[in-house]
C-alpha cells in the first residue's frame, strides 16, 4: 500500500516525503523496519524517532522532529496507528462448517453461515445468527441467543437464557450466566440457596477477556452495555449493570447489584461493594475500593476510595510521616521548658 493511500485511510496528512513509498505493515518505534509505519504518542519517547528504522511515523499536530522521515500528521497518533494495524492485520474470513463431533440439539436454530468447532455442545432452543464462530469445546446451555458476527472462544460456557448481542467477542474459559451468589439463612442458621431464575444480557460490540465470570440475576437480569470492554479475570456479581463504552480492567470485582455508568474506567483490582451506583465517566484507580456511591466525573483512589487529588496529597504526606514525627519531637523539646516555666 502506498503511503498516500494509507494516509487517506487513516485521516492523516503526509509531510516530508520525497516519494510515495510502499508501506507493508505497522510496528512500534523500536520494532519497526523499512516499509513499516510507526507512531509517537508519548513525548518522552521523542528521541526514539531519531533511531527508528520505520519508513514513516504518525505524529501529533504539535509534535516536531529534526529527522528527515516521512511524517503522517494526525490529531491522535495512537488512534491512527491502531487503524493502520487493523488495515494490515484484517480479521480472517469466516469459513462456515460444523465439525462432526459437535453435539447440537435438534431444536436449536442455526443460521447458514456459522462455524462450530469440535466437541462443542449446543443445547435446546438455542439461536445462533449468521457469521458466528464457535471454537472447539464451547458449551451453550438451553435457551441461549448468540447474535450475528459474534466469536466464542474455546472453553467458554454460556449458561441458560443468556443473550449475546452482535459482534461480541468472548475469550477462553469465560463463564456467562452462572448462578448468582445468593443465599438466605434458615431457622437453623443454615444457608438456603436462592433460585437464580434471571439471565445475563450482553449487548452489541462487547469484548470479554479470558476467565471472566458474569453471574445471572436471581430475578430480572445482569446487563453489559454496548461497546464495553472487560479484561481477563473480572468478577461481575448478580443483578449488576454496566453502561456503554466502559472499561473493566483485570481482576476488577463488582458485588451484586452494582450499577456502573457509561464510559467508566475501573482500573486493575478495583472493587465496588454491592448495591452502589458509579456515575458516568468515573475513574476508579488501580487497587482502589469503594463502599459508597460515586457521582459522575470523579477520579477516585484508595481504600476506602476518595477523591484522587486528596488521595495524592495524603500519600505524599504519608511518605513524610517519619520526618514529621522528628519535627514534632523537636518542637516538644523546645516548648517543654516554656510550659514548665509557665506552670511554676
| Range of strand content | 25-35%
Structural class: alpha/beta
Radius of gyration: 27 Å
Kindly report the average pLDDT value: 94
Rounded to the nearest angstrom, the distance between the terminal CA atoms is: 92 Å
Q: Main sheet?
A: 12 strands, mixed
CATH class of the largest domain: Mainly Beta
CATH homologous superfamily placement of the largest domain: Hexapeptide repeat proteins
Number of strands: 38
Strand order, biggest sheet?
Answer: 6-9-12-15-18-23-26-29-32-35-37-38
DSSP helical segment count:
4
CATH topology-level fold name of the largest domain? UDP N-Acetylglucosamine Acyltransferase, domain 1
Give the CA-based shape.
flat
> Poorly predicted ranges (pLDDT <50, ≥5 residues)?
none
In the CATH hierarchy, the architecture of the largest domain is 3 Solenoid
| Structural domains: how many | 3
Approximate helicity band: 10-25%
Chain-wise SSE layout:
Layout: H1 3-9, E1 13-15, E2 25-26, E3 36-39, E4 56-59, E5 70-73, H2 77-88, E6 97-98, E7 103-104, E8 109-110, E9 114-116, E10 121-122, E11 127-128, E12 132-134, E13 139-140, E14 145-146, E15 151-152, E16 157-158, E17 163-164, E18 169-170, E19 175-178, E20 183-185, E21 191-193, E22 199-202, E23 207-208, E24 213-215, E25 221-224, E26 229-230, E27 235-236, E28 241-242, E29 247-248, E30 253-254, E31 259-260, E32 265-266, E33 271-272, E34 277-278, E35 283-284, E36 289-290, E37 299-301, E38 306-307, H3 308-319, H4 321-343
Amino acid at each position: 500500500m502506498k503511503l498516500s493511500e494509507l494516509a487517506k485511510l487513516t485521516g492523516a496528512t503526509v509531510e516530508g516525503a520525497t516519494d510515495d513509498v510502499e508501506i507493508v505493515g505497522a510496528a512500534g518505534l523500536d520494532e519497526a523496519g523499512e516499509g513499516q509505519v510507526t507512531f509517537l504518542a508519548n513525548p518522552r519517547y521523542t528521541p526514539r524517532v531519531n533511531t527508528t528504522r520505520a519508513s514513516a511515523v504518525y505524529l501529533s499536530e504539535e509534535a516536531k522532529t529534526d529527522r528527515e522521515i516521512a511524517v503522517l500528521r494526525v490529531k491522535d497518533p495512537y488512534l491512527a496507528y491502531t487503524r493502520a494495524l487493523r488495515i494490515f492485520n484484517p480479521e480472517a474470513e469466516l469459513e462456515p462448517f460444523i465439525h462432526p463431533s459437535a453435539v447440537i440439539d435438534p431444536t436449536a436454530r442455526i443460521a447458514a453461515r456459522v462455524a462450530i468447532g469440535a466437541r462443542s455442545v449446543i443445547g435446546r432452543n438455542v439461536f445462533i445468527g449468521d457469521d458466528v464462530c464457535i471454537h472447539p469445546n464451547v458449551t451453550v446451555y438451553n435457551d441461549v441467543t448468540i447474535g450475528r458476527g459474534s466469536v466464542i472462544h474455546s472453553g467458554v460456557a454460556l449458561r441458560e437464557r443468556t443473550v449475546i448481542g452482535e459482534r461480541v467477542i468472548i475469550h477462553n474459559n469465560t463463564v456467562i450466566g452462572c448462578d448468582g451468589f445468593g443465599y438466605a439463612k434458615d431457622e437453623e442458621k443454615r444457608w438456603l440457596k436462592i433460585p437464580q431464575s434471571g439471565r445475563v444480557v450482553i449487548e452489541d460490540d462487547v469484548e470479554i477477556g479470558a476467565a471472566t465470570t458474569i453471574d445471572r440475576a436471581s430475578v430480572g437480569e445482569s446487563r453489559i452495555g454496548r461497546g464495553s470492554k472487560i479484561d481477563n479475570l473480572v468478577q461481575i456479581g448478580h443483578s449488576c449493570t454496566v453502561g456503554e463504552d466502559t472499561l473493566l480492567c483485570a481482576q476488577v470485582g463488582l458485588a451484586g447489584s452494582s450499577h456502573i455508568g457509561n464510559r467508566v474506567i475501573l482500573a486493575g483490582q478495583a472493587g465496588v461493594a454491592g448495591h452502589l451506583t458509579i456515575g458516568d465517566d468515573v475513574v476508579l484507580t488501580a487497587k482502589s475500593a469503594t463502599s459508597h456511591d460515586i457521582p459522575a466525573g470523579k477520579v477516585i483512589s484508595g481504600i476506602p476510595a476518595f477523591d484522587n487529588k486528596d488521595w495524592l496529597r495524603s500519600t505524599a504526606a504519608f511518605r513524610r510521616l517519619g520526618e514529621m514525627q522528628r519535627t514534632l519531637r523537636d518542637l516538644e523539646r523546645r516548648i517543654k521548658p516554656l510550659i514548665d516555666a509557665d506552670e511554676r
